[in-house]
Write a structure and sequence with these properties.
Blueprint lengths: L5 E12 L2 E13 L4 E5 L6 H8 L7 E6 L2 E4 L6 H14 L1 E4 L11 H11 L7 H7 L15 H14 L4 E5 L7 H18 L2 E5 L3 H5 L3 E4 L7
Helix pairs in contact: 3-5
The structure holds adenosine-5'-triphosphate and magnesium ion.
């Protein structure tokens, strides 16, 4: 049997606010096949970034199972945390492309070198890196450093980094949050085109209902359970 791309079951996560536990994710499950896209919506603070962090191993759920690209991460497992962290690390380097809410580029590298570095880390060719910057409308900024460009331009460079690694799964946290409507549409067009062309999975946290409607699945985290 071929595993699905991503499956999460019974995810629970709470944070502490003073002495009070604050439930963020309660018994949440989702399923994504290759070539599918899932929009995560919900008001600010509803847990979109927390869920994305769990789905790429940067945050641990209190309970639940994540199966991704043939690997299983189960909070009931007795496996040492460092081993699971190493498996998550390999997945993020090679197969899961994450675009964070705040673009995280290496400050000492130019935009182009950031993209090249990311491609190399994933075992991909550096040949198309400049092309990705062009397609995202920032080709002429290739030699600038991250602190010499705007937030929206950094966000597009972060997307170019993910595109260049040719991932099996893309997790994007409000990837057009700091872009104007026109630029956002162009960037999202590239994202869906890449997803269709490579048949990768895409999970997108967004406040934009129009964008959410373009995804094949929709998960609304707006309704927190009664506490
Ligand atoms: N490390 C943390 N410690 C304590 N509380 C946290 C932590 N990270 C997130 N939270 C809380 O968990 C809840 C969910 O946060 P999260 O960042 O996942 O929301 P979000 O849906 O991504 O919001 P936004 O749309 O503003 O980005 C919020 O109430 C937040 O304050
Ligand atoms: Mg968020």
């Amino acid at each position: 049997m071929v595993d699905s791309l991503l499956s999460a079951r019974g995810l629970n996560k709470q944070f502490q606010s003073g002495d009070e536990p604050v439930p963020v994710l309660v018994d949440l499950s989702l399923h994504l096949e290759a070539g599918e896209s899932l929009a995560l919506t919900g008001r600010s603070g509803s847990g979109k970034s927390t869920l994305l962090n769990i789905l790429c191993g940067l945050e641990k759920p209190d309970a639940g199972v994540v199966q991704v690209l043939g690997e299983t991460f189960d909070t009931r497992s007795t496996e040492a945390g460092s081993k699971a962290d190493a498996r998550w690390g390999d997945l993020r380097r090679q197969q899961i492309g994450v675009v964070f809410q705040e673009a995280n580029l290496m400050p000492a590298l130019s935009l182009l070198d950031n993209v090249r570095f990311r491609a190399r880390l994933a075992g991909q060719s550096e040949d198309g890196c400049q092309d990705w910057l062009e397609r995202l409308g920032i080709g002429e900024l290739a030699d600038r450093f991250p602190d010499q460009v705007s937030g929206g331009q950094r966000q597009r460079a972060a997307l170019a980094m993910v595109f260049a690694m040719k991932p099996a799964l893309i997790l994007a946290d409000e990837p057009t949050g700091s872009l104007d409507r026109h630029t956002a549409e162009a960037v999202i067009g590239q994202l869906f085109e890449l997803q269709t062309r490579h048949g990768c999975g895409l999970i997108l946290a967004t406040h934009d209902p129009e964008l959410a409607s373009r995804c094949s699945q929709h998960l609304d985290l707006a309704h927190l359970p009664e506490t």
